[in-house]
Predict the structure of TetR/AcrR family transcriptional regulator.
Amino acid sequence: MTKRDERTRQIIDQTIHLLREEGSEGLTLRKVAAACGITLSNVQYYFPGKPELIQATVAQFFTTCKELIQADRALVLPKDPESSKAFLKRVIEVLVVCDNQEFNVIFREIWALSSRDAALKATLEEYYRDYAQWMIGLIEEIFPQANEIVSLLIPYAEGYALVGNTVPLNRDKQVAMLVRLITEWPTAGRGVKGGSKVGIRR
């Protein structure tokens, strides 16, 4: 890791800490600089403004998730029911019903910021378009209805970040429910098509 990469990661880590502790209203480049022990101009060298810093924080979250999942994807055999189902469960645990409460808090704050910042909102929407296409590519070899599945999972993930701790089912049961819905989808994955056909009616 280069010195630039290390500094960038430090700034993003402190941004995450401030978002968690003080919320979006309390986040300023000056506070980030103080938390990092560097000057404001040094932070601005990497991130000219708050929108750029927030965008980099979002990108870092997605990059981390992708790295975790890509490592698991290499082990999946498309025609093997057990590995397909295990991989689907992993995708849902990491990308949808995420137990990283820190990032759940951060995403609430980022969406709050985006409601008042058109440029940030546009950036987030573009990230999600790219993210959706990445997820489709990730699972379409296993689940032919990848478009429908991703259209279910991404909004569910956003809703879970907001209210997941308040609904009747705990996290494990929510994961199991989503796995069951997808693997019982009509003509679902080639690797898991031996299951029940009691799926979502379209």
